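Objective 1b: paired records.
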Amino acid sequence: MNEALETLKERGFFAQCTDVESLSKKMDEGPITFYVGCDPTGPSLHIGHMVPFFALRHLREYGHHGIALIGGGTARIGDPSGKTEMRKMISYEQIDDNVKHIEAQLNKFIGFDNKTAFSDNNKNWLADLNYIDFLRDIGSCFSVNKMLTFEAYKQRLERGLSFIEFNYQLLQAYDFYMLHQRHGCVLQIGGDDQWGNITAGVDLIRRKCGGTTELNKEHEVWGLTFPLITRADGKKMGKTEKGAIFLDPALTSVFDFFQYWRNVADADVRKFFLLFTFLPVSEIDTICKGNINDAKERLAYEVTQIIHGKEEADKALSGAKAAFSGEGDKSHMPTVELSKSLFENGIAVTDLYFEAKLCATKSDARRLIQQGGAVVNEKPVSDVKDVIKLSDADTDGEFVVRAGKKKFVRVTLK
């Protein structure tokens, strides 16, 4: 197998391929152009979106050329794959604004040079399509019976599939066809829930360009998918009780981003090192053979550094050390500023947890205390009637307030 494909397989980026032998041979002959797409249905990517973009960077390292396709056109419809209900429609203006944010995030991660890696937007060819012409030229290449065999549609048919969503597969297939025409793209990569859409694009190009004949090998194209990434507990990777882990620090703070990786299950550490870092496999294996908590801290640091940069990763690491081991710098911990007057006569501990936003309600704070999960400046709080005073502050005149083992905040006074 081609060395680049071997690397993808070794690191966990391999589920299905339309024809791995011929793709391997094609890649041995020289650089190919491939693409991965994402729809700008929100203002930020989350970490689950990033799996194929990590694969893009691996392929780029082997000399292949990657296209990051941002679906400014397909986002107007919404992909039904992996969804239990129809996406909420958003305005065209919001989609265009999301495109700008996501393109900037991908540029930071990939580094577009417009040669070995660049972005495109399917709005460029989808926004002004003539529907009748599209149905005649592209719709005629699709079998409804075959489309209904794909898992994405079978699942949605049980709950209800709108006609607008049913068109999505045609549009994604058309994207592949257009990128093949515009840029010589011969491979689409993505999550395994995209298998039906990807193979539809492969079939469309073969039908339109004759890629199945020996005389038209230049139009031969492939699809490659990755396993859908789940955690050891079976839940979707990149999700927490607060929601998705976003790349935008305004939506997920860098510290919370760091802590997500620091707190992954032991069983997930090696898998996530392989998928979400670029460390050599041999180094990953050495790290994972050592202390598991050290390995998790290294994982958190590496991923945070890749997404947010070394300076932010250093701050997050320092804040975590200050919170959990008394080392590091407290100024890098999550911080809430409260009025000094609240503490002058004493603040009820339940009010403190509520004001510090560690508990959504005072009832939640009471339950936390009763269950033994409340700690203020390393002192456990066991009585819901306790009052916290200025004299309870640490030597810096601050409070470190904990909720359980993983949630905490530094409280400063103004």
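Objective 1b, second protein:
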Amino acid sequence: MNISLSLISHTNVGKTTLARTLLRRDVGEVRDAAHVTESSDAYVLIETPEGDELRLWDTPGFGDSARLLKRLEQSGNPLGWFLTQVWDRLADRPFFCSQLAVRNVRDEADVVLYLVNAGEDPAGAAYVAAEMRILGWIGRPVIVLLNQLGPPRSADAESADVQRWAAHLAAVPVVRDTIAFDAFARCWVQEEALLDRIAAVLPAERRSAFGRLCAAWRARNRDVFEKSMQVLASQLAAIAADVEQLDVRGAGTAARGWLASLLGAARRGDAPTDAAMARLASRLDAAIRGTTDELIRLHGLRGHATDEVLQRMGAEYAVDKAADPGKAGLVGAAVSGALGGLAADLAAGGLTFGAGALLGGLLGAAGARGLASAYNLARGSDATTVRWSGEFLTGRVTGAVLRYLAVAHFGRGRGDYVEGEYPPHWRPLVEAAAAARNDRWAETWSLAAAGAPAATLEARLGPQLQSITLEVLGRLYPARG
């Protein structure tokens, strides 16, 4: 069974833009001008193995609505027929196209999707009354879609616009529903809400086929969602497992650094460690760009991610320094015995009184140089390691979900994907959902620090990312359906 939806509106409100967004491919022509679309064209939105098709008709926009209504009312008499079929075709092409669009909708549509500019005052849009009478003449159920809403806003803000238009059109019998649905900034959750509204106004005999079409639509959306979460989990696992290993610095370098610190000199950058941090950051930037590009492709969009600039803070990196035997030997010249453990800790770059102090109590006689080697043996490595800190990785979870939301809300009708500022109400929701799972993140990052492979980390991260994102979407769109 074929079910047809017709997009219709006043001219230059965004029908073709919305068609591209829903179809996830380029159709028609989009320009900032009136009467760009001159013909009624049908496109298949989704189909089922049973042979059902959901078709979307993109139609020419209404222009002079009052004149159009008058001409339609005349079309049943000979003069009206002549004006419509002959005179208007030659003398006023846009006006003729508008008449064809109306007849097409009357003949083909099961449901009319009537777009309005949400930024307009419905009472001040003089054309609306005439177009409502035209839609009444067509006689198909109408769902009003509020387009051109701007960036994604809170549910309460959108609800106010919906209520304003719904109240204005409450007396129009063919208008069965009003919903916010922006061609530029909508996501799959809103698409499914629209399908639910359409199902509610279809004739009973068409609902079974439409149910199969909705199931196919949801299965496609779920597939894109799950693949997106897998892509993000793979990227997060890779950066959590990423590590740089450095050789221990020589005794000469250690001596200069230690003497400078005794004299109160300002700390100079640790060049090898800084270089390792830069390599980690470079790989992270490349991973983020690659992941975003894959999200763009999965959502049927065009374009590429831009470079992500990382502001490096101390908390971003976890540096596990090996004890330098040369440096430990210098410190050991001043302290020995049980304090040799403290020397090992100093040589590792931190005053921890941890494993080094314990070893110092047991092996004080070995001397500081030998103790440093024992300290490295106890920690399992004689190399300094640099990796992303747990706090930073948890922050990247928030960043990954926000990046997904940005791509999922980007309508193809806007053109190539462009990164912009996230709507301010998104971040608190994502951060709260992520914070509720802090214990699980800590466990995962501990596994990463212990050397767990990326595949193990990905298996843990995937379900959590899905859970967080679905929770956030549920809060962004609480009234779905």
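The CA atoms of residues 114 and 279 lie 53 Å apart. The beta strands are 2-9, 41-47, 53-58, 111-117, 142-147, 175-180, 244-246, 317-320, 384-388.
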